[in-house]
Amino acid sequence: MKNKKTILYLKKMPIAGGVIFGLVIFSAILGPVLVPYGPADQDFSKVLKPPFWQNGGEIKHPLGTDMMGRDIVSRIVHGARISLFVGLVTVLLSCFIGTWLGMLSGYIGGKMDSLIMRLTDIQLSMPYILIALAIIGALGPSIKNIIIVIAITNWVGYARIIRGEVLSLRQMEFIEAAVVGGCSTPRILFYHILPNVVNSLIVLATLDLGRVIIFESAFSFLGLGVKPPATSWGAMLADGRIYLTYAWWLATFPGLAIMFTVLGTNLLGDWLRDILDPKRKRYVLV
Predict the structure, then answer these.
(1) What is the rounded distance in angstroms from the CA atom of residue 2 to the CA atom of residue 219?
(2) How far is Cα 81 from Cα 31, in angstroms, rounded to an integer?
(3) Which end of the chain is less crowded, N or C, counting CB atoms within 10 A of the terminal residue's CB?
(4) How many helices (H) and strands (E) does the chain have?
(5) How many angstroms separate the CA atoms of 97 and 155, rounded?
């Protein structure tokens, strides 16, 4: 062996991912209680204050203020609630829809399989942003409508992957034994197939959470997200882009919040993938 001091790569990455994601969850749950300002509290005597380490900055506003004197830290903390809420609810809905359609497609096959797969092909052929603009344009921008838009366009990935696993599972002996034993199709799907695809669902959902957070931020950036006075990281980016040349902190810190949150979820998802599938374990030399 070139080096006996080999360690599992997955022993290091989950620590960073867990710490980052844990801080985001802590901010979303307890942050609004701990920060001294609300997301819409304005103080026009403190307009565009820089972070505390720059000239003119104040420790009361450690990351500065925006064009209306609102505290950046408070707005980022409150924005974490919206991003996590939209991300978690959307992933759960997408996972639920995609999982059951994928299991039905893979297990029943025939016309059911053809119908569901054609639906996925149609879904994938339609530009994502056009669907979002059409739905939100008709229903109006809100958290509920963002969740609906992402959920009805995000189930395809779950359906295709679960279908592939079910196609393999239905050929196994324990499924054939359940059929011979007189188990109904719903029972086979729920008690025999679903437990065997849960590991894949956990990994998919964890990796998908970061992507959904980016989608929510993108919609808010375009003005299709939450309405003021509620705040989101994407809306903060949109506000800060105008002042980027002389008030860099307005867009930088919300952007970092998005980046580190997605990084944390991806590291956790990567770790879960390796833990739940031993064949994918990776090693590095140190």
Answers:
(1) 50
(2) 9
(3) N
(4) 10, 2
(5) 6
Contact 214, 83 (CB under 8 A): no
**Is 126 in contact with 134 (CB distance < 8 Å)?**
no
- Counted residue by residue, the chain has a size of 286
Cα of 114 vs its chain's centroid, Å: 29
Over range 170-174, report the average pLDDT: 83
Q: Furthest-apart CA pair in the chain: how many Å?
A: 77
Span between the terminal Cα atoms of the chain, in Å: 13
Domain boundaries, the chain: 6-35+72-233+267-285
Mean pLDDT of the chain: 83
What does the alpha-carbon distance between residue 240 and residue 35 come to, in Å, rounded to a whole number? 21
Identify the residue whose tokens are 């994938």: 124
Contact 82, 146 (CB under 8 A): no
SS3 string, 222-258, reads: CCCCCCCCCCCHHHHHHHHHHHCCCCCHHHHHHHHHH
Which residues, in sequence order, are bridge partners of residue 7? 284
Q: What is the DSSP letter of 2?
A: -
Domain 6-35+72-233+267-285, CATH: 1.10.3720
Two structure tokens written together for 158: 């779950």
Q: What is the pLDDT of residues 109-135, one digit of tens each?
A: 888 888 988 888 888 887 777 777 788
DSSP string, 83-127: HHHHHHHHHHHHHHHHHHHHHHHHHH-HHHHHHHHHHHHHHHHS-
Contact 111, 268 (CB under 8 A): no
CB atoms < 10 A from the CB of 146, how many?
Answer: 26
The token pair that represents 99 in the structure block: 């999982």
